[in-house]
Amino acid sequence: MVQPTAQDDDHLSRWRQLVRSSAVQTLLAFGALIAMLVVFSIASPNFLAFDNLVGILLATAVNGVLALGVTFVIISGGIDLSIGTVMTLSAVMTGVLITNWGCRSRSASRAGSRPAPRPGSPTAR
């Protein structure tokens, strides 16, 4: 059995530093995205069809807008990662108002999208 030398350990530590760098991780993520694109386009001939790409973009539009909003909140220093919970609560409240209470869709969406009061605010009491 061959024992690892100090030179091998040095090469290994340099390799680990290289892989941990943000530029390499960005390239690896982009490479994985391209690989998935190639695999899915080979697996299904309709994957790169215009209608399918439009469907994918429409399905991810809401998450993209929410991610953009959360990005500005995090950059400003007000770390608040509850956007998914608030979005789900708004969707559920809108659905309940429409189906159970018979509200019109416009007024139900307005009521369901109102932000909840913050704990300790005068309206929360």
Helices and strands, with pairings:
Layout: H1 6-20, H2 22-43, H3 50-75, H4 83-99, H5 105-112
Helix pairs in contact: 4-5
Task: Fill in the keyword field for this structure.
125 residues, mainly alpha, 5 helices, elongated
Shape: elongated
The helicity comes to over 70%
How many β strands by DSSP? Answer: 0
Distance between the termini: 72 Å
Written description of the protein model:
By secondary structure, this protein is mostly helical. It has a domain at 7-48. The chain is 70% helix and 0% strand. It is built from 5 helices and no strands. The chain has helices at 6-20, 22-43, 50-75, 83-99, 105-112. α4 (83-99) runs antiparallel to α5 (105-112).
Give a quick summary of the entry.
By secondary structure, the chain is mainly alpha-helical.
